[in-house]
Design brief:
By secondary structure, the protein is α+β, with helices and mostly antiparallel strands. It folds into two domains: 126 residues, Creatinase/prolidase N-terminal domain (Creatine Amidinohydrolase, Chain A, domain 1), CATH 3.40.350.10; 211 residues, Creatinase/methionine aminopeptidase superfamily (Creatine Amidinohydrolase, Alpha-Beta Complex). Helices cover 30% and strands 24% of the residues. It contains nine helices and 17 strands. Strands 4-3-2-1-5-6 form a six-stranded mixed sheet, sandwiched between helices. It has a five-stranded antiparallel sheet with strand order 12-11-13-16-17, with helices on both faces. Helix 3 packs parallel to helix 4, helix 6 packs across helix 7 and helix 8 runs antiparallel to helix 9. It starts with 5 loop residues before the first strand and ends in a 12-residue tail after the last strand.
Amino acid sequence: MAQDDIAALLLTTEAQVRYFTGFLTRFWESPTRPWFVVVPASGKPIAVIPAIGSTLMAQTWISDIRTWSSPDLTDDGTGLLIETLHEVAAGGRIAVPDGHETHVRMPLADFRRLSAACNLTSDKGIVRRLRMVKSEAEIAKVAAACAIAGRAFARVPEIAAEGVALDTVFRQFQMLCLQEGADWVPYLAGGAGQGGYGDVISPATAAPLARGDVLMLDTGLVHDGYFCDFDRNWSVGPPSRATQDAHARLCDATEAAYTAARPGVTAADLFHAMDRVLSQGSGPTDGGRLGHGVGMSLTEWPSLIPSDHTVIEAGMILTLEPGLAIGDRIMVHEENIVITQDGARYLSPHDPARIPVL
């Protein structure tokens, strides 16, 4: 902040606020109220929040908590926020995260009022750089989330079989995650189809699993405020040779990136390590993003794409997520790793190359 002549950071989104305060609540699901945290160039952060959050915020390390009764149809906290920023910044530059994977969580009219009253600027990626590299405590939280998901995945044969509807599998898998220790399951994606699936973002349907289907479940469950994000595939009945080969190639691609992952390489290097295995020497594939960061958010920076040259550092937690097209179907595989000084370590229970059979 001193380097970029920034007097204060203004944070407005759940993960940003929680990163600096520890304020963990599901109340962000309501879009009614804005929430603000101001991080001065010196001194502790200041919470400028709706009064309904004061008791919980007081349980964190934050001691300066300024509140208003919200919702207020005349001034929903913007005036109090402007007063606070004038006090701590004294006319200096107030930085707001403004790059990829950021947004400003307040009404546009209020943001225009704030912009007219304060000297707003970019945070120059400060918050992104902080959140990309995890502490040992953060790594332990993601590892705990991965272990919970691993136990739930191991129990999938209890709930999935030929004839069971896909939407039933989805519901019961979320129950398994909760039984195994997840606080909640905000993300569950997947699919099922003969030899693969059409996409990995559609809601589950009532179609029953059929012999020859490949079932995939991809979960982003939360434990103590931190996500895991990895998937598993199963064959319903004996897999075809094409299914076995595709699954093995996905695992080989993951292993290639895992072997290459160490401090000093780039996100693009990890993309190309996977892409070479997926293409089998036939040239670059249209693989899209083959992984990303994970932590307080399901997806974080960096993105494993050819154009992302972010240098990998010890402490980063990444997903490795290669995908293959099999005719008009696809298959994907995903693992979570943490970068160490000497290379990488799996956080997700490592998946064998042979696809399991239901």
